[in-house]
Amino acid sequence: MSRRLVTALLAVIAAILVTPGNVAADGQGGGTLSGQISDPESSEEDDGVEGIDIDVLDDSGDELGTATTDAEGAWEFDVPEPGTYTVVLDEDTIPEDLQSYELVPAAEQEQEVDEGDDPIILYRLVEPETEGESSEGPDDGSGDESAEEEAAEEGAEAPEVDESAPFSHQFAQVATDGLVYGLVIAIAAVGLSLIFGTTRMINFAHGDMVTFGALMALLFSTGAGGLGNSILGLVVAVALAIGVGLLLRDRAGPGVRLAVQGALLVLGIVGATLVGILGGESMEWRVSLLGDPGMGSSALDLAVVVLVPVVIAAAVLAAGRLLRGRVPHDTVLPLQGVVLFVGLAAGLWLGAIGAALIAVILGAGLAAGMERYIWQPLRLRNVVMIQLFIVSIGVALLLRHTLLVLFGGSRASYPEYQVQEMVGLGPIEVAPRSLAIMVVAVLVLVAVACMLQFTRVGKAMRAVADNRDLAESSGIDVARITLYVWTLSGGLSALGGVLFGIHQIVHWQMGFHLLLLMFAAVILGGLGTAYGAMVGGIAIGMVAMLSTLWFPHQLMEAWALAIMIVMLLIRPQGLLGRRERIG
Amino acid sequence: MSSEPTQLGGAGGAAQGGIAEVSPHPGVAKPDPILVADGLRRSFGGLTAVDVERLQVQRGTITALIGPNGAGKSTLFNVLTGFDRVDTGSWTFEGGRLNGLAGHQVARRGMVRTFQLTKALTRLTVMENMLLAAPGQSGERLLGSFLRWSWARQEDSNRERAEALLERFRLAHMRDEIAGSLSGGQRKLLEMARALMVRPSMVMLDEPMAGVNPVLVESLLEHISALRDEGTTVLFVEHDMDVIMGISDWIVVLAEGRVIAEGRPEDIRSDQVVIDAYLGAHHDEAGRGSGDEAAEGIEEAR
Amino acid sequence: MDFLGILATSLTSAIGPVAAIYALAIIGLNMHFGYTGLLNFGQVGFMLVGAYGVGISVGTFGLPLSVGVGAGILCGLLLALLLGIPTLRLRADYLAICTIAVAEGLRFVYRAPFARDFTGGVFGRQNLSEGFRELNPFPPGRYGFGDITFSSPHLWTMVVTWSLVLVASLVMWSLIHSPWGRVIKGLREDEDAVRSLGKNVFAYKLQSLAVGGVFGALAGVMIALHQASITPDQFRPQVTFYLWAMLLLGGAGRVLGPVIGSVVMWFLLTFTDEMMRAMDQMGWLPFVSGGELGAVRHALVGLILVLLIIYRPQGLVGDRREMLVNVK
């Protein structure tokens, strides 16, 4: 929904209709001039600039009055009768920090007002011209809602290409950027493809799981004050409720169990709210994005950062092994949970667990929760696949805008990765963060591939993705494997979000923009295959970036989508997909 | 139209006369074939699901297609009716080539199929299911649909015909129910009745008895014989040997995609190749390679 | 809190021009999804090309309004063919991805700087509805009763759009209660069965896509005429999701579903919006404020979608019995 359309219209309608005074004025045939000036540094359309004055003059040049924008950047002015009016924006009233922006189309605009007409006057603050696009008129790449372009520009993309360099150098540079971008897409898309394979469902909420991961990492790396504590509190409450539910399953009646669980949840919500309201600055804490134990040497730090999560994972698995058979079956999982929590808390205290890892764990938990409490019950109710698609769209809208409410619409980047010296590698210049992304992404992709190829769970995942019924009949616990697939996908998408955030920028719509590229990637590689998504992701990233060598960079995504459609025409099963009829 | 019970397995009628003299060996030419297939091959990946060198179906007979699981019966059905592509080979129906024709074009030529898993259009009423099948409706054109007077008469005559067919298949009392409320057996009946609405010269029935209770099987068999007696050619896939032996005029045995035998029921009953194929298939059912399973899986998946 | 005022505002938006425009687009979506079973997640693409049919002919080339309207509808038709021919042979889930991708791709192209000479880039096109307003037979002033009143241009748009909705609904009724509609509904249940009965499934799906697409384009045309100015960014994928929510709320596969869905949903949306705004002004909302209210509303639409599918998949006017039948 275009919020501008609706808000503008509703505002106009409401303004005219609710106040009787307006009706009288309007009865004589005048109209209302209105508009909204968005904050160019925010991508949320409703984030306006407050306090800008707009003077309205009639055609003889007499000033009729001045309107001032409100908190949402909206302003309006009633004119007495039809005619031509001149609207002048007082540039001196633009706030100091926005003075560097250019005003388009112009400060002074003429507007004809017909009877009963309520024209909308367009003002935009845009970034001044940068690269060679001056002939194109004012650049829209920094408008309030052109997030996809901004995102593209914020990274190490097209703008950094030195136009004077030989073409081969440019090509190498852009291809490297494409590889980084492609790896990010691949990381996020593997889960999408696996989920499709195991459940035949297209998860439209996948993009917003990516956003979730990026925002969580941002939250915990920039300062998790009230909100971070609230979220952790909620997570603990939910985990406790689930654990207690498991413990009480055969020991207490369902009424008691539900009551205890409900009480825990209510307590958690109340507690989280209180922490959120009261905590604020006083409970401020933060961890670095990737973890920083402060051991004095970076090699030691790195070792601890890598080792601690491995130790925690090993401890959880070992606890499971040790306890199985010794304690009642249904207490194993809660006890494992306790080990996990203790481990994580210790890791956090050591500083070995970074915000990225917290984000990945929360993302995995979110996905597992969705599967367990939304998708699995719906599948058991035999809800038709088409309807599941729609539910996932609903979940996507809900998640995306909840995140928007919680985190606001502004863009941000991880404090440790904002500006970096480029490292020269032959003809290519790479930011260290891009190198880090490549290393992390390749390692994780290889790990995931090994997991799928060699472990029992991984083989089961591929079997279920290949043929759910066959897997079920050969004794695989499909429901459990599906839960694992969601957990893995949630973690991977959160990691994808973190990497995407490091690469470009963190923003509430980033995931949705990535979603279309992920779709392109999984279709290119073969819907339902994990390896296909990896190959497809890298290919789509390369295509998107390489297209900027010849075509405007605003069309990057359009090219990726075009590749997808061409692929569907010539080989609908994708690069690595098995040939089966899809028509 | 009548619903007189016909003698099962009776070799009456002029058309079947021809088939009695044909010698029973694979790929044999028939005196009056309605369907002629040559060199059909269809493979999935490395698996050849269908590899039929030569197959003819005699006009006006009931021909059964049998074979062990994964023999390629359903794939052959799909290929013949335009629901699957063929790798090589050609086939003609009533003298016209069908190669490369889409499913709906094959149906319009008069060869209409049913499905192993019934495909009743569940949220349409039984009557709507029937009317949908009527061929050549001018009201089915997008712009033609607005000219109600132009198709109203056609609709009425189709409705009459549908009514008669429903009567014959004992579904008339259900005409205004949605098809989703029918039982499994009734759906099979509806599907057959619906196929007849197309006025086919040949019907292809994919396991018409599967999952139908024994009482309904009798009446289904009667309907099939009645079809033959009216001059419609029937080709059907079935597993139940008693049914097949009782009703068929001719039997084609498929194994691993090839026609290994064909002949009259009595020929097949005593054919050593067939017995081996079936026994062999049963023998090492457990130890069979995953290949056949995969082929079956692929077939199931479509 | 001015409760009556809020109620009046909500009612006004429920019967206002925007609700009518949405109803028109949903009628198209109902053709696609409700009757044919096509998963079109790119209906906003049809609205985009429809609106820009007017925008480019009138705004860029200064052609008369009638040409613009014609161009808009033609563009919708063309998009249906271009989109349908490659994708309608694919399975439903592929179609869903393709439609959303094509709609977003179109928006990227229309807002790209190289297209600025035609489309006006991100700024879109302005002053598009002079020809339309010249035809306005209502003298200036306000019309309505009580607090529910409309200015003369709005009344004119409303009358035209709701008339179009009426015509479109009649067309839909006629189509669906004809042999053509029977084939279309058959497709929704099982393509292969319909194909086995000698119907050209692809042609019917394409026709359905075109009919629904033209309604979508018509909605786009009305957006251009109503607002007099259009920008590419108002045609975001969220619009499609709103349309879906409204269709499911009203009842998919029902002639009246789209109209009821649009009216009820706009009432609810405006009502919650106004209530939140009023409560915000009175300081009753602890967490959200001002600009975040829009986000809360979007989240609400998502919640409505989820709850509808789970608890009332047939919508307000759907047939429970039909929904209980296990399809496929």
UniProtKB/TrEMBL annotation, chain A:
<feature type="transmembrane region" description="Helical">
    <location>
        <begin position="386"/>
        <end position="410"/>
    </location>
</feature>
<keyword id="KW-0029">Amino-acid transport</keyword>
<keyword id="KW-0472">Membrane</keyword>
<keyword id="KW-0964">Secreted</keyword>
<dbReference type="InterPro" id="IPR052157">
    <property type="entry name" value="BCAA_transport_permease"/>
</dbReference>
<keyword id="KW-1133">Transmembrane helix</keyword>
<dbReference type="Pfam" id="PF02653">
    <property type="entry name" value="BPD_transp_2"/>
</dbReference>
<dbReference type="InterPro" id="IPR013783">
    <property type="entry name" value="Ig-like_fold"/>
</dbReference>
<feature type="transmembrane region" description="Helical">
    <location>
        <begin position="508"/>
        <end position="527"/>
    </location>
</feature>
<feature type="region of interest" description="Disordered">
    <location>
        <begin position="24"/>
        <end position="49"/>
    </location>
</feature>
<feature type="transmembrane region" description="Helical">
    <location>
        <begin position="356"/>
        <end position="374"/>
    </location>
</feature>
<protein>
    <submittedName>
        <fullName>Branched-chain amino acid ABC transporter permease</fullName>
    </submittedName>
</protein>
<keyword id="KW-0813">Transport</keyword>
<keyword id="KW-0997">Cell inner membrane</keyword>
<keyword id="KW-1003">Cell membrane</keyword>
<feature type="signal peptide">
    <location>
        <begin position="1"/>
        <end position="24"/>
    </location>
</feature>
<feature type="transmembrane region" description="Helical">
    <location>
        <begin position="558"/>
        <end position="576"/>
    </location>
</feature>
<feature type="domain" description="SD-repeat containing protein B">
    <location>
        <begin position="44"/>
        <end position="91"/>
    </location>
</feature>
<feature type="region of interest" description="Disordered">
    <location>
        <begin position="128"/>
        <end position="164"/>
    </location>
</feature>
<dbReference type="GO" id="GO:0005304">
    <property type="term" value="F:L-valine transmembrane transporter activity"/>
</dbReference>
<dbReference type="GO" id="GO:1903806">
    <property type="term" value="P:L-isoleucine import across plasma membrane"/>
</dbReference>
<dbReference type="GO" id="GO:0042941">
    <property type="term" value="P:D-alanine transmembrane transport"/>
</dbReference>
TrEMBL record, chain C:
<feature type="transmembrane region" description="Helical">
    <location>
        <begin position="209"/>
        <end position="229"/>
    </location>
</feature>
<feature type="transmembrane region" description="Helical">
    <location>
        <begin position="67"/>
        <end position="85"/>
    </location>
</feature>
<keyword id="KW-0472">Membrane</keyword>
<protein>
    <submittedName>
        <fullName>Branched-chain amino acid ABC transporter permease</fullName>
    </submittedName>
</protein>
<feature type="transmembrane region" description="Helical">
    <location>
        <begin position="283"/>
        <end position="311"/>
    </location>
</feature>
<keyword id="KW-1133">Transmembrane helix</keyword>
<feature type="transmembrane region" description="Helical">
    <location>
        <begin position="155"/>
        <end position="176"/>
    </location>
</feature>
<dbReference type="InterPro" id="IPR043428">
    <property type="entry name" value="LivM-like"/>
</dbReference>
<keyword id="KW-1003">Cell membrane</keyword>
<dbReference type="Pfam" id="PF02653">
    <property type="entry name" value="BPD_transp_2"/>
</dbReference>
<dbReference type="InterPro" id="IPR001851">
    <property type="entry name" value="ABC_transp_permease"/>
</dbReference>
<feature type="transmembrane region" description="Helical">
    <location>
        <begin position="241"/>
        <end position="271"/>
    </location>
</feature>
<keyword id="KW-0812">Transmembrane</keyword>
<dbReference type="GO" id="GO:0005886">
    <property type="term" value="C:plasma membrane"/>
</dbReference>
<feature type="transmembrane region" description="Helical">
    <location>
        <begin position="6"/>
        <end position="29"/>
    </location>
</feature>
<dbReference type="GO" id="GO:0015658">
    <property type="term" value="F:branched-chain amino acid transmembrane transporter activity"/>
</dbReference>
<feature type="transmembrane region" description="Helical">
    <location>
        <begin position="41"/>
        <end position="61"/>
    </location>
</feature>
